[in-house]
Amino acid sequence: MKGENIGEIVARNIKSLREREGLTQEQLGDYLGISKEQVSYIENLKRPIDVIKLKRVADLFRVQVDDLMNEKTIKDIEIAYSFRTDNVDGNTLKAVAFLNEFSNDLLRLRKMF
Amino acid sequence: MNRSSLKNKATKFRKDLKLSPTAPVDVVDICKLKKINLIFKPYSRESFSGISMKIDEELFIVVNSSKTLGHQNFTIAHEFYHLFYEKGFEKSICKISNIEEENERDANYFAINFLVPDNAVTKLFGDTKGDLKVSDIVRFESIFKVSHKAMLIKLENMGMITSEYLKKIESGVIKQAEEMEIDHSLYRPTEKLQIISDYVMLARKAYEADKISIGKFEELLYKLDLAIEDLYSDEQIKRDMDKYGDV
């Protein structure tokens, strides 16, 4: 969208990924260690997201931080998640992010040989 | 999926792995055999049971080690169902499991029948229908390494115990195991971090072949709470330091 700054693009991408994967602001907040109100502030441009949290959002959805800052809304993510279950808490999302990072590293290492 | 079809899949899975139709199985060994990257990591007792993921033909299972050991073993067998039998698991997919949830029935039914086949139960208890002794049940669990809850459900399904009796004996299992001097680690969380994968070996190989820097190597290990010192002997580190200086 013309005239958008990076902050707006990031906010839009986070909201769109979260909604597409069926996560609530509360669940994403639990994962990031912030309240659902703070997630809402980030998504509505009332507060910027710091770099560490931005990296954690990228890890959770298996995208690059650069993708979150890209003007084009992220259309395809590499993997189909099943977040639409009960009891998906911050710890569950931490485990998914860990697995994403671990599997990405492993696949990259494997391609070296 | 209907129950008999799930039971057949569990029997076939044992057969394909060339396992005895009635003996206890080691789910970790099966992961090694099937080249599944298996990660035990503590999260919290109230959180998820396990996660399975398939990407680029690579298989992964994460087990929440804050759950009891019996629950963890059951979770791994449950994830086998997702990875090998669930429809829609052909492409890149990540599935979160809470084995207590209603919609996980198929994977749970497969898991209990894979871990404890009907024949194993009848072999030990015969055709005795009625209320088995708690001590016999606890001993059976310790052999098959499954949780008390899973074993009671299995026995109830087979009509070996009544639901009233199940309710009566479902608690107090640790005390019972203690009295029988049976190892009760099965009923406790392990809280361990353990990775069963060739990840570390590949990282080391990449570093030694100069495909990644020492900084990257350290970063890859750090993610698993490991340090270079954990992989090399003191002599090797000293030799490298003499050669390259203290970096």
Descriptive notes:
- The complex is a heterodimer of chains A (113) and B (247).
- Chain A has six helices and one strand, in the order H-H-H-H-H-E-H.
- Chain A has 113 residues and is mainly alpha-helical.
- Chain A is globular.
- Chain B folds into two domains: 3-179, no CATH class; 198-244, no CATH class.
- Helix content of chain B is 51%, strand content 11%.
- In chain B, a hairpin with a 2-residue loop joins strand 2 (50-55) and strand 3.
- Chains A and B meet through strand 1 and helix 6 of A and strand 1, strand 2, strand 3, strand 4 and helix 10 of B.
Q: How is the topology of this model organized?
A:
The complex is a heterodimer of chains A (113) and B (247).
Chain A: H1 6-20, H2 25-32, H3 36-43, H4 51-61, H5 65-68, E1 80-81, H6 90-111
Helix pairs in contact in A: 2-3, 2-6, 4-6
Chain B: H1 3-16, H2 27-33, E1 36-41, E2 50-55, E3 58-64, H3 69-84, E4 93-97, H4 105-115, H5 118-125, H6 134-144, H7 148-157, H8 163-169, H9 173-179, E5 194-196, H10 199-208, H11 214-222, H12 228-231, H13 234-244
Parallel strand pairs in B: 1-3
Antiparallel strand pairs in B: 1-5, 2-3, 2-4
Structural class of chain B: alpha+beta
Say which CATH homologous superfamily of chain A is assigned. lambda repressor-like DNA-binding domains
Q: What count of domains describes the coordinates of chain A?
A: 1
Query: What is the element string of chain B, with H for helices and E for strands?
Result: HHEEEHEHHHHHHEHHHH
The rough form of chain B would be described as elongated
The share of residues in helices of chain A is 55-70%
Distance between the termini of chain A: 42 Å
Oligomer: heterodimer
Query: In angstroms, what is the radius of gyration of chain B?
Result: 21 Å
Mean pLDDT of chain B: 90
Biggest sheet layout of chain A: none
Please mark out the parts of chain A with pLDDT under 50 across 5 or more consecutive residues, or reply none.
none
Give average pLDDT of chain A, whole number.
Answer: 89
Order of helices and strands of chain A, N to C?
Answer: HHHHHEH
The major sheet of chain B is characterized as: 5 strands, mixed
Count of helix runs of chain A? 6
Rg over C-alpha atoms of chain A, rounded to the nearest angstrom: 14 Å
Helix content of chain B: 40-55%
CATH architectural name of chain A: Orthogonal Bundle
Tell me the fraction of residues in β-strands of chain A, as a range: under 5%
According to DSSP, the number of beta strands of chain B is: 5
